[in-house]
Amino acid sequence: MQHIVVAITGASGSIYGVRLVEELLKADCRVTLLVTRSGFDVLRYETGLDLSGSVAERREQLRARFDAPERLDHYDEDDLFAPVASGSSAPDAMVVCPCSMGTAGRIAAGLANNLVERVADVALKERRELLLVPRETPFNRIHLENLLRLDQAGARILPAMPAFYHRPRSIDELVDFLVGKILDNLRIPHRLFPRWGEGSATAKD
């Protein structure tokens, strides 16, 4: 069973992280969900998912929301004693989705001031998969240089840029396209969108 850490930060696009967790659990993965303080605010504003109380209470709220009591875990962003903070317990992969440019910059600088940044640092040093899903536009030069540094360090940059060749008819289908691309990069099978040459697709991604 693959162990994937999903981190939701304060960038807009928290629905991508929520859908990713749903699909990873559906694929029988073990998921550790990390959410920054600003990520909680954006989750509440954009999706209505209001997580409150102690970390144990939030963990139970998340397990109920995703109906996964055995395979979903959650730690506070300040808990640097969490198992995933250690290279000896490194997850198979980490996805920061969405990834704020502040978080990207701190990871690129090698900082580890919270659990999200520490797990990303562990992923890089242990040569595990690290996928960052930035949701920002336009990028300035600092953003681009930080993303380049992350790519050179071994991370994969997967911007929140859905395609339209599959003729999406809803926001859900646009979200699913991006989540499917993340799953592709994790080598997890899915049927979230028709691939080029399948169905009614008529233009290349």
Automatic annotation (TrEMBL):
Q: Where dimethylallyl phosphate is bound, by residue?
A: Y165, K181
UniProt EC number: 2.5.1.129
Catalysed reactions listed for this entry: dimethylallyl phosphate + FMNH2 = prenylated FMNH2 + phosphate
Indicate the segments forming the Flavoprotein domain, all copies.
Answer: 3-186
Concerning Pfam families, the annotation shows: Flavoprotein (PF02441)
The molecular function GO annotations come to:
carboxy-lyase activity; flavin prenyltransferase activity
Q: Where does FMN bind?
A: G10, A11, S12, T36, S100, M101, G102, T103, R135
Q: Which UniProt keywords apply?
A: Flavoprotein, FMN, Prenyltransferase, Transferase
Q: Report the family membership.
A: Belongs to the UbiX/PAD1 family.
PANTHER family associated with the record: FLAVIN PRENYLTRANSFERASE (PTHR43374), FLAVIN PRENYLTRANSFERASE PAD1, MITOCHONDRIAL (PTHR43374:SF1)
What's this chain's function? Flavin prenyltransferase that catalyzes the synthesis of the prenylated FMN cofactor (prenyl-FMN) for 4-hydroxy-3-polyprenylbenzoic acid decarboxylase UbiD. The prenyltransferase is metal-independent and links a dimethylallyl moiety from dimethylallyl monophosphate (DMAP) to the flavin N5 and C6 atoms of FMN.
Q: What is this protein called?
A: Flavin prenyltransferase UbiX
Q: Which gene is this protein's source? A: ubiX
